[in-house]
Amino acid sequence: GMPKPPPEPGTLQGNAGAPGKVQGIARVVRTLKDAGRVQPGEILVTETTAPPWTPLFATVAAVVTETGGILCHSAVVAREYKIPAVVGADGATVQIKDGQRIEVDGDTGRVKVLMA
Question: How many whole angstroms separate alpha carbon 81 and alpha carbon 62?
């Protein structure tokens, strides 16, 4: 088949965790304590999530994690809450800056930075 085109600048490729496509403000969170900064409707960008993070999934628009596959906590919970998720997006917390507008495509596993 056709070779996959390399991701454009400002685009991250991860695994499709939960379906759907959404745009919103990225909130880069390193620890659960830090998660209080996430406003409803923002997009959670973090290394990984665990069960204590679950309440956040009720308020965020989407989730992006650096680690994990389709069976990881982030993906499973995002599907339950019917929000898009991209998991295993290497370098997400570094390449995506806090407060940037991003697009999360949980069908393709792609995350795009829309503006600096």
Answer: 10
Q: Which amino acid is at 45?
A: V
Q: For 61-91, what is each residue's pLDDT tens digit?
A: 999 999 999 999 999 999 999 999 999 999 9
Write the DSSP symbol of residue 47.
S
Does the reported pTM lie above 0.90? Answer: yes
Distance CA 87, CA 71 (A): 10
The answer to whether the CB of 96 falls within 8 A of the CB of 26 is yes
Judged by phi (left if over 0) then psi (alpha if -120 to 50, else beta), residue 99 lies in: left
11-115, CATH topology level: Glucose Oxidase; domain 1 (3.50.30)
Active-site residues: which are they? 73
Nearest to 17 by CA among 52, 43, 42: 43
Q: For 32-54, write each residue's pLDDT tens digit.
A: 999 999 999 999 999 999 999 99
